[in-house]
Amino acid sequence: MRHVEFVSYTGKFPNLCSGELTLKIDGKIVTFGSDYTKCQYPQFWCSGGSTFIHQDEDGVIKEPWIIYKEDIPDKYHVYIDEIREEFNSSVPYGCCGGCI
Question: Would you give per-residue pLDDT tens digits along the chain (100 residues)?
């Protein structure tokens, strides 16, 4: 039985990594993000991607999001695998390149 469902994510270029994530966990809407005035819990993800500049070439490497379990409330630790799966399957891989 699934306990975590992706609802929405507001991050987009040039701040793909700084959105508000809304999940439904055990049937309840839960929000995470860097804006504590709107979100219930802090952001727990970081871009797994990177940017590079090398001589005449620059670019973006897109990789799965890094999920920090220690930043997720303890009561949701049991769902860490589902949270990671929902986030990575629903949000375009970081890095978006906005930091270049």
Answer: 899 999 999 998 888 888 999 999 999 999 999 876 689 999 999 988 887 787 888 787 888 999 999 999 999 999 999 999 999 999 998 776 666 6
Backbone conformation region of residue 38, classed left if phi is above 0, alpha if psi is from -120 to 50, else beta: alpha
Per-residue H/E/C for 85-99: HHHHHHCCCECCCCC
Asked if the peptide bond before residue 46 counts as cis, ω within 30 degrees of 0, the response is no
Phi, psi dihedrals of residue 95, rounded to the nearest 5°: -105, 140
d(CA 87, CA 22): 10
Provide the whole-model pTM.
Answer: 0.87
